[in-house]
Amino acid sequence: MSEDVNQGRESRSAHSGRRNVTTSTVKRITPDQTDANFMEEVLKMPDGDKIHSCFQCGVCSGSCPILFAMDYTPRQISEMIHIGLREAVLSSATIWLCSTCYMCYERCPQGVKLTDVFNAIKNKAVDEGYPTPSVYEKMSRQILKNGFVYDVGSMNDEREALGLPEVKDVKQDMISAELKDTLIYKLLEEKEKKEASQKQ
Amino acid sequence: MRSELVTTSAGNWNHRYSLFIGCTIPVRENSYEVSARAVAEALGIEILEIPSQSCCGLPFRSIDYNAWLTLAARNLAIATKSNSVPVMVLCSGCYKSLLTASKELEENPALKQNVSRRLSVEGLEANGRIRIEHIAQVLHDDYGIGNIAERVKKSLRNLKVAIHPGCHITMPSKIIGFDDPASPKKLNELVRVTGAQLIDYETKRLCCGATVVGIKEDVSKALVKRKIENITRRVDALVTFCPICHATYDIQQLDVFASERDKQIPVLHYTQLLGLAMGLPEEKLGLDLNRVDASGILAKTS
What we know:
The structure holds 2 protein chains of 2 kinds. Chain A is mostly helical. Chain A has 12 helices and no strands.
């Protein structure tokens, strides 16, 4: 597929799909540094199994509420997975801007679970050390520390005043112990060690 | 099969659920929990607590599948162990997370075994057999619109409302299956039974964008603006079924329409709307906790 054809299709789906959308932020796919194994890797991931069925209709892009802010459209990401553009996919802003609304997954005529493919891609990006929005590190640390994304334990006075039962016995140490062999736990542990050694 | 539920004749209910509250509600949306508990009590729905419940795991889904599944499974295991009744979930994000996890565990024995190994330090075992229901599902499918209608005491006919269905209460429908994502009929019925006028609008299906607030806030604000501008001056309130959607509209509107305050629309949790229709006192519904002033609504509910 030539780049011009590619660009034209995206514009059409974007303009007919919704208002206030410009394709000026959308990048063109530049098919260099392809990795033939990338597609196979995605197919093996949870929910990645249907990605090969994508026939590039663009319903995903037309359904996406965040399209206007993305660097590559959801349809392009799917195409890029097929081509094997590992680097561009794993470093794209699009995967982190997905609001996980599941509209593309819901409407895909080919049964591609694109929202969860995006989840798989994000998991892979974290695993391979690609930049991850800092909010995820913050939330993960909070969960390991408090058992919740926020310090829910500190809300008990307010809860009592509203007649709500106390949040208690969260067992944060158990949560940490259960997550000890997961990727995120190991990454945070490594980072803490590195930070500690840099301070010394 | 809902063998856990004892449903005798209409009006004689024995509904017991354990309540999953998640992270957003206790920190930002107490009004939802207060009103949900008040409505449940008035309807005769018994709520049991889930001790040691934690985050549902959803934030991990994007970055670490195993961490997500383990934390979700922990909550399912605790709920199963503490009360053998269905789990009632108020948050659509938690609902989707727990429901998806329960299905993944039951469909993939190897995965289940792996998660069980992690949970064994706490003496827990992974299983996805417990029933998970959103409060809207409890009210519509279990309690029933007809029975709710019998409890409606106050006319809301002067109140015009629009619903924001939100995403995870219906999608992906292959997993959730509660209501039709393209046109949520059950959610409409739940609103109509309160007597309020339900107004349809073009951007009804638009996502609130909560998950990108922490990544690119202006993107979320653009989505909030599009939805609210579509219904402003057409409705008295926007009704939500998810604390995260509620927080997004209730908080972001203050900023998005800081200089156009007349465009702001009060955002009600569905349980606040139902509570008003049931004639529950406003202090039991946490209306004073809403950020966009919702007090004007009371004048229309007499």
